Structure formats: C-alpha cells, structure tokens
Amino acid sequence: MQKKRRHATNITSQRSGALRTFALGLAALSAAACSAADQSGTAENEAGEAVGSSAEAIVTSGLVARYTFEGNASDSSGQGRNGTPSGTISYPSEHGGKALYLDGQGGVVTVADAASLRFTKFTACAWVKPEEGGGNSRIFEKGSDSSYRLFVRDGQAVLGLNTSGGFKEVASRKFVPPRAWTHLCATYDGATVGFYLNGVADLSQDSDALNDPDYAGWSAADKQAYQDAHSRSVPGPLINDTSALTIGSKPGGTAGDRFTGYVDDLRFYNRVLTAAEITTTYNDGTTTQRNLKITCANAGLVYVNGSDSGKTCAVGSTLSIPIKVPGHYWVGLADETNKRYQHKQIYFTGSADVTVAFTNSSWLASRPWKVRLLEVAKADLGNGRIASLSASDLTGGEASFKETATWIPQFTRGTGSWSYDIEKVTDVVGKMQLEDDPNSPNFNKYCKLDLSALLNQLNRGWLTSTYDAVLILFPMWPDDGSAQNVCSGQFTYTVGDGLSVIPNDWGRNQHWKEGSAQVNTQVFLHEWLHTAEYQYGGKMGWPQPLGVNYGIHASHRYGYNETSEFYLEWYRDYMAGKLQDGPVRGLVAPYRDQYVGMPPMAWFESSRLTKNRLPHTVP
Questions:
Q1: For 1-12+37-49+287-363, CATH number?
Q2: DSSP track, 319-388
Q3: 80: helix, coil or strand?
Q4: Quick one: which of 121, 144, 151, 349 is 20 to 30 A from 316 by CA?
C-alpha cells in the first residue's frame, strides 16, 4: 500500500484542482478484506502516486510530536516523544499505509509528559475516522485535570481547554462524519479556538444567531446568550500539569470517554499554523484526484461511505465522482422508487480510477431491528416518592409504540423495519440517583438514571446482546400528587448499547393523549433514533424547536418549516441521510455541501453487528 510521507520532502507532481469534499462515511473492513485489498493493489501502488506527493514540504516548524502509526506508536518528529501502547490496539492497513485502530474497550497510547507538550498556544492535527458517535470520544487528552483535549461528541469535533478562567469546551460547526476519513485541525492562540476540517476553516457557531434569518425573532438577550455559549473566545493562559498525554481516551477513562475508530498522522505544533500550512498538512494525507466510475442496471441515488453524494446514477451512462483520500470505501445505490439498496466495497490507492458496477441481482434484504418495549410499572424516585405508570400510560404508550413500528419502513425508504415485543415489569425498580455533575442544570437533584444498572437490577443484562434497541417506558410523575416530577420534566440518563428511556410525563404532556399519528410516533421514533445514532455513529442532530438551547440541532437550521409540531418531513429526510446543511442560511461551498443523517447503510448495521469491530462486516 502507499506510504505516508514521514519527513520533509520535495516530490514534484501535478496536483489536480480542488475537490468538492462531501461527508465520506467509511465503514471499517475486516482484517482479511484489508489484506486482500493490499495484495490486489500492490502492482498499482508501485506505479501509482505516493500519498501526499506534491511540490510542498511537510510543515516542520514548531512540530513537537508526530505519530504516523506505521505499525507502532513512535514519534517521527525527531523529538523523542514515543508512545507506549496498552490494552487492545492494532495497526491495520488503511489510509494509504497503516493507521491506529482503537476498539473503544480500553486500548490507548500513552506519551510521557514533557515540557514541549505543555503549551501556551498550539495546533493539533489528525486524520480520524470515528466508528461510534456516543459519549465524549477522546482523540487525545493531556493532564489529570484535562489541560487540553480533543474529542468527538454528537458528530462534532470539540476542543476542551483548562485555563485560568476555568474549563471551556468549543465545538466545530461542521460535522465529523462516521466511517469517514476527516482531516481535523484544532488551533488555540492563547485567546481563541479555531477548527479546520479537510483543510478548510470552519465557520463558528456564534455567528449563526446573526446570520440565520430564522433567528430574526430572537430577543437580543437570547442572541447574546447563544453567542456566549458558542463563542470561540477562551482567554488564557492554559493550565498545564505534568501528567501524561493519552491517545484514545482520557486517563483511566470509561466506555463513554474512549474513541472507537481510526486515527492517523497525529501531530502537535507549539504554534498556530497558518491556513496555508494547514492546507499542506491536509494534502499530506491525500493523493492525486481520481474518480469513482459508477454504472447501474437500475437508476438510483449514490451513497459514498454511507453519505448521500448528491448524485444519481442513470441507466446507460457512467457517473464520475472525484476522490483523492486513499482507503476503503463503501459505494451504495438506493432505488427509492422500489425501496431497495445495495453497496459494494472498494479500495482506492490513488493510482487509477475505480470502477463500480451495480446489477439487479445484489439488492440487500431488509434486516428488521429487534426492538423491545420495557414497561417499568413502578419506580423509586430516590427521595422517598414512588412513581407509577397509569392505565392510560400503558394503553397510550403501547399504541404509540406499535404505531411507530408502522412508520419505520416509510421513513427509512423501505430499508428498515421493526420486529418487536413488549415486556411488563411489576417490581419497584430504577431508583433515581443524585446528579453529581456540577455542570449539569440538575446538579444535586434526583435526576440521574443509570439504565445499565436498571437492567442489572432486573437481571436483564442480556437484553443489549439480544435486542438491537430497548426502549424503556419509565414513570416520572410522583404518586403523591406533586405537580412536578423531581426534575421539572427533565432528567439525565445513560444512553448506549441500544438503550433509551421514555418518561411518562412526556406522554402525558403531549405525546399519546391526542390520538394523532403525527404526535404518537414522535416520542418513540425520536428515542429509537438516539439508540440507532449511537450505534452507527451518526449522531448529528435531531428535530427540536428553534431556540437557544438547541442550536445547530434545530430542524429550522436545515430549512424545514414548522408544518406540524414534530417535523415529520425532517424525520423522513434525516432517516435517509438526505439533510443538506447550509442552503437555508445562504451559505456557500464548502459549508453547504455536507449531507447528514442516517443513510440506508445504517439500517443494515444494528448493534449486534457494530459490536463486532474487527472483523467488521456488513451483509
């Protein structure tokens, strides 16, 4: 396979024009598939162009550590900051050479503290390909009190900094798509955070409250609150300590802190790189622009690595899609007329165009998601009060749950469905805990429900290995007649491994008492999507009213008017990976060119499949 450039070079070659970069959600392949791709591509690679070849030299000024992960965690910067692997990690063939693979089960790379890793200003760059979207998936973290950390949360890159003014997290505006190689750079100049994705400066979120016409009705106070919350201003200086740098988790992190996926060419600079220099680091991980050449026996929308390419394959013609990031690709075809989907896997070396031919004999059979509704009849709210599900909760909740199942095939364009059952729990279970996170608005309230502990209490731990999703109808309205539940309608809970919870106060307030299909489906559809997004890694937004608290997740942000309370049109497009970010706000490329959501590929990858990280196969 092609090798990444390790040292400053001056390889001359002609680079083609700029590539329109859309989200390329790469799926991880099995070691055997990677090996086969390596062997089949060897001859081409020897004659092909090296990854990153250009007339530009690698940026070395200020470089204090670089990890290319070519079979080890050595520092290739010459500074001697070698990493020490621990736990289960591997270096599979990917991205034109080798890359670090982290399975999210505890494998990390640890780099001992050094003065050169204690920054006043810095740039951190890496190629990343997340395979799971839940939690605060650390790419790296430095310091026992998190001097600085870069992670992916809800599909966004987040830089966390501990400064003299306190700890603050700043999120990217654009998304880091699942199963995609994305070049991510985060900068900090001692006062302001910046992001670059695939060599392009990222638009800051705090400007949206001024630029988006949907925000015209906001009060000045709301606009200011939103801008303050999303500002990239972080006054320094950084608070450094002598703790190690951890790649793949926070020190001693648990499941929600660990990164699952691939990391390649991780670099640290002790200065802020210029935009031109960041473009150079991006180009180091690309090759000559080539094309996917796609033919089809049946017309359909083309998906590349799980994301809508925005292009259609027509019978009798060849569709060309430019690519220049080497690695494994899934290329899919969605026949929306007949509600069918198929995909093929290829490996792109950069040495030649890649041909993909779709026939009418390879359509994938719909794979039903196995879903259980778990009805918790009584719950201990943790402060001496008991909450119970009423008869209307049970009848209304079950009716809404069953109705949701009928909507899934339509919303997923026929590529998804439910096979479900219902279990009733009669014991008093699910004791609420005090929220101990001082940053939570529910701090020191009985607002924390650990769903994994609940399943263990019920001796139902096997549910997450048997079912793709478990939705828990949970009572939150106290039996003593209190006007409010313990958290005034809001509480925190753990979500992961296909678990999500539906509190009965949601249903009583608005969801299943009205008898409307649009109303009934929303709550179960919404919560099921949380579990699906977590598993697929595509947790990039959800339909909510426009408001300060919801920011980029508001459906208005994607141009969907409030035609109904619950934005069913938004759901339909989100569940086909067809939301196009940007046009409603008049943004220009590349900001408007990213499609997000859950593509057809997602509905063939439920939790029982995605838990098998390596080898990773898709039917």
A1: 2.60.40.10
A2: EEEEE-S-EEEEEEEEETTTTEEEEEEEEE-SSS-EEEEE-TT-PPPP--EEEEEEEEEEEE-SSS-EEE
A3: coil
A4: 349
Question: From the first residue on, what is the mean pLDDT of each consecutive set of 10 residues in the chain (619 residues)?
Answer: 37 26 29 32 34 60 97 96 94 92 90 97 95 78 89 86 92 81 96 95 63 58 71 92 94 83 96 97 94 96 86 96 91 88 88 95 85 89 81 85 86 85 84 71 72 76 81 83 55 63 69 46 76 64 42 52 56 74 46 63 60 35
Q: Exposed (0-12), middle (13-18) or buried (19+): which is 507, by Cβ within 10 Å? A: buried
Q: Is 312 helix (H, G, I), strand (E, B) or coil?
A: strand
Q: What is the DSSP string of 203-268?
A: PPGGGHHHH-GGGGGS-HHHHHHHHHHH--B--S-B---SPPEEESSSTT--GGGB-EEEEEEEEE
What tokens appear for 419 in the block?
Answer: 């096979």
Tell me how far apart the alpha carbons of residues 69 and 88 are, in angstroms, rounded to a whole number. Answer: 15
DSSP state of 117: G
Give the strand pairing for 418-429 and 369-380.
parallel
Half-sphere exposure of 419 (CA within 13 A, CB side): 9
469 sits in which H/E element: strand 469-474
Packing angle, helices 391-411 and 517-536, rounded to 10: 70
* Residue ranges per structural domain of the chain: 1-12+37-49+287-363, 62-283, 369-538+598-610
Q: Please measure the distance between the N-terminal and C-terminal CA atoms of the chain and give it in whole angstroms.
A: 26
Which one, of 148, 213, 220, lies nearest residue 186 by Cα? 148
Q: Which of 181, 126, 179, 133 is nearest to 156 (CA)?
A: 133
Q: Which CATH architecture has domain 62-283?
A: Sandwich (2.60)
